[in-house]
Amino acid sequence: MRSGFAISAVLAGVLALSGCGGEAPAPAQPAAPTVPVPTQAELPPPYDTADLAAGKGIFGRQCASCHYVASGKGNLVGPNLHGVFERGTGNLASYNYSPALKNFEHKEWTPDLLEQWLLAPQGFVPGTSMFFNGIKKDEERHALIAYLLIESRKP
């Protein structure tokens, strides 16, 4: 009887100690920087007067089939655009960018840079894998960028 108890105690100890070794869990990826969500009035011109409802519609018609903008949604054909202005160009760890965008000379998306990109992506970054004809009308680009400046920063 005593030997059964001793064996059980030893096995319990071995099992308890076996959980103490091994590799440490991988550190969590740092959270995206927290940036206050601006109001439209806080956006720089011409985005402060752009039509946000039109921007949302343009995103829905021309962008949403390839991109999410909401936090935690993952990627589609294109990268998730949440935090796009804070993380830099070609710099989302969970997305495999084209070499052209990985090596793009500009390292931070700004509204002015996005204006050029959205006008003609293939012309602005030759070799990009984003096949999109662009948005030719200024007011439509302004509306979309205003929408992204706000939506991409929502928690």
Here the CATH topology of the domain at 48-155 equals Cytochrome Bc1 Complex, Chain D, domain 2
> What letter string, H or E per element, gives the SSE order?
HHHHHHH
Q: Helicity level, as a percent range? A: 40-55%
What kind of sheet is the major sheet? none
* CA-atom Rg in angstroms: 24 Å
The end-to-end distance, rounded to whole angstroms, is 61 Å
DSSP E strands, number:
0
Structural class: mainly alpha
CATH superfamily of the domain at 48-155: Cytochrome c-like domain
Low-confidence stretches: 5-31
Named at the architecture level, the CATH assignment of the domain at 48-155 is Orthogonal Bundle
| Silhouette | globular
Average pLDDT reading? 85
Q: Please give the CATH class of the domain at 48-155.
A: Mainly Alpha
Q: Which range does the strand content fall in?
A: under 5%
Annotation field: number of helices: 7
Task: Note the main attributes of this structure.
single chain, 155 residues, mainly alpha, Cytochrome Bc1 Complex, Chain D, domain 2, 41% helix
